[in-house]
Amino acid sequence: MTVAEWIPIATARLEQAGIASPRLEAQLLASHVLLVDRTYILTHPEVELNELAAETLIQRRESQEPLAYILGFREFYGRRFRVDPSVLIPRQETELLIEEALKLPETLRVLDIGTGSGCIAITLKLERPDWDVWAVDISGAALQVARENAETLGAEITFRHSDLFSGLEGEKFDLILSNPPYIGVEEPLPEEVRNHEPATALFADNHGLDIYQQLAATHRDYLTEEGTIILEIGQTQGAAVAQLFNGQILKDLSGNDRVVVACLI
Ligand code: GLN
Question: Pocket residues for ligand 1 (CB within 6 Å)?
């Protein structure tokens, strides 16, 4: 079957499965089978597709497996990060943390807590090569993905296997960032997220506030005197987290509360 024949069939099936951008995803799946980019698919409709390989991929997507895990990557801040089911798929909203961090002028010692794919730490190191960037995660499997991404993208990061600050005794940072797990176990979530992304990256106790509470109790020991902390939050958590850190709430492009920024002084 040619690409031109397969795309409409695949699009209809993905639409039927409730996928929001079925045509785009069909093109991306075809490009993954052929190991080419999407432009090639659009300009070479006559190319033959390995139907068996394409069928396997479309069935995975029909069963709500996230596209990023099927393709094995997701773009973040203009770069391609390898992902697998041991890490959270980077979200566009998280780019707001990067934008806030990049407003800080001096050479900084930076810590990314719960680095997952490494998207925050690696992006900051590549945008500000003079910064000394550290990244920790409680998951060894996630750290492995982050290390690989750092190597592929050419970012020099100090990685530590650590439950929040547990492995960082005596270290101080000018800037601490985190996109911690912040979803309450009781919250409704798309099947695609709940059944496929790592639970440790998604969920926290106390209606999703537990990690913020733990960080609020300990972060002062790890921040320099005028240090800053930048946290991603769930859209209903602004008031609670801003109060915990005596911080300021920032909104994302959709107008939802998304980030809390706080300074020690
Ligand atoms: N820091 C990673 C990200 O923002 C992972 C976050 C997480 O696993 N909660 O995508």
Answer: 88, 90, 94, 114-117, 119-120, 179-181, 201
Ligand 1 pocket: which of 92, 120, 200 to mutate (most atoms <8 Å of CB)?
120
79, amino acid identity: R
The CATH superfamily assigned to 87-263 is: Vaccinia Virus protein VP39 (3.40.50.150)
pLDDT at 264: 76
pLDDT digits (tens, 9 = 90+) for 231-255: 999 999 999 999 999 999 999 999 9
Q: Ligand 1, closest atom to CA 88? A: 8
Residue 11's identity, in one-letter code, is T
Q: Residues 54, 213: contact at Cβ < 8 Å? A: no
| Confidence (pTM) | 0.95
The domains of the chain are located at 3-63, 87-263
Tokens of 200: 């440790």
The span from the CA of 25 to the CA of 107, in Å, is 41
Inform me whether the pLDDT recorded for 106 exceeds 90: no
